[in-house]
């Protein structure tokens, strides 16, 4: 079939190089492409229409015949599903997977915690090692620990792409997708899609709730701690699970018992059934705030963790000193808080909010000194604004100001039912506006250890409960029982031997505790300092008493030297300024 010149020109425009190609075909293969032109056109049309048809059918199928759940990386559900997947019995048979030894990425806990989380597996490993975990020397025990740590557990999660699997007799599909965000610092912008055939999504709900249960059961009674930090997007702040700890018994926090019980009773009353309705009926926002103040190492954070453990509440840790945190981020973090939780703001006096509402947050004389003079506020932005003008005229990020914090605490986004606990070493630095009732409803003052506290601290270190004895190394228990390394024969095998031995030990520790308390000056050392000393002698209660006078002398000497150095530094600073 001969083509006219205009037809050839048209084909050339449609398929560049057509003339050249058809000439080659004609000269070398004696094939006239023009003769087959109609077939090529039909094939191309068929291909294009098939493509459109398949896209349309896929879209139709996915819209009307498939249910899909989408999970984002910054949501906890993502972790639940990954955890569930890694624990599936069939996971090991998947031929396309992502393998690794780090669990932090998806389970959010530190190594310690993940160890705990996998205790079932570890029990297996331990029994494989030697079949027993009791009564072993330190060397045996340590060799096992080190060997186990060398071979970190391999984790398998689904690789990018689609994975088909059966769940309760239904065929489901899990798709893992990495999405381009355009931002180079966003490493893991991933999503999971879980799909099933049909328009009833109940099987997906069931699987997701199963995954959630498995994940939550793993935590048991542990206290879960979240931290407010930059999210995966890099610009916003999210609550990220950072660790979980075994609950701390309340009686291990040495504090005036009345204060401790008042604190606990107040929280329990606040969480009691009907309290939320009572607040609503009286038009009062359902929130409660506490300020725990006192010198460092006196047990403020410990009390908070112990109460969280007792009530099974999660702890949300917030560092207000972060320069990247602004009012919008704080607002978002508050609105993300669950209904019942403890929001712990530690060392609230170290952040910008110690500057009162009327004060400049960035005086000319230096960022750390507050100055009330109006002239100093002239060049600075309002304390209400998170940005401020530095002496070189540039705007700097300042973190959270007092006004921002108050706005967020009182704002509509501040979640109802939360318990705010702020800790400080310097309550006098805090503005009255922050401490007013409604924001801080109860203040607890922590003190340096008095004689009674010292006695209790000693007892809490050396008293060995039945359960703790089982967990502890036999060597340590033996040392405590005998009070010295020269050990006689244990009478644990005799009838009533264990009981009488424990009773004896307990009364011995009580007498020693009294003696210890009489040797340590009351109101001079923090519980943390005393605990630190006792830990050095944790297996030797008598040695702790024998050496304590020397320790007190050394500590006093250190403190005197530190104070002298501080006075000297202040004097030289004063001289420089004058
Ligand atoms: N009152 C106490 N009872 C029992 N242990 C205490 C007490 N105070 C401190 N400790 C021990 O000292 C350590 C530090 O305690 P914690 O962090 O609770 O002190 P803090 O008052 O919050 O200190 P900071 O003001 O420096 O944050 C912990 O290991 C804790 O067990």
From TrEMBL:
Q: Which residues form the BCS1 N-terminal domain?
A: 41-253
The reaction(s) catalysed by this protein are: ATP + H2O = ADP + phosphate + H(+)
Q: Which residues form the AAA+ ATPase domain?
A: 286-451
Q: Which InterPro entries match?
A: AAA+_ATPase (IPR003593), AAA_lid_BCS1 (IPR057495), ATPase_AAA_core (IPR003959), ATPase_AAA_CS (IPR003960), BCS1_N (IPR014851), Mitochondrial_chaperone_BCS1 (IPR050747), P-loop_NTPase (IPR027417)
Against SMART domains, the record matches this protein to: AAA (SM00382), BCS1_N (SM01024)
Q: Which GO terms of the molecular function aspect are on file? A: ATP binding; ATP hydrolysis activity
> Where do Low complexity bias regions lie?
371-384
Composition bias of kind Basic and acidic residues appears in 385-396
Supply the Pfam families for this chain.
AAA, AAA_lid_BCS1, BCS1_N
Region feature (Disordered): 355-396, 470-504, 553-578
- What cellular-component terms does GO give this entry? mitochondrial inner membrane
Subcellular location(s) per record: Mitochondrion inner membrane
Keywords carried by this UniProt record: ATP-binding, Hydrolase, Membrane, Mitochondrion, Mitochondrion inner membrane, Nucleotide-binding, Transmembrane, Transmembrane helix
Membrane topology term = Single-pass membrane protein
Q: Indicate the family of this protein.
A: Belongs to the AAA ATPase family. BCS1 subfamily.
Please report the name of this protein according to its UniProt entry.
Mitochondrial chaperone BCS1-B
State the organism named in the record.
Answer: Penicillium subrubescens
* Taxonomic placement: Eukaryota, Fungi, Dikarya, Ascomycota, Pezizomycotina
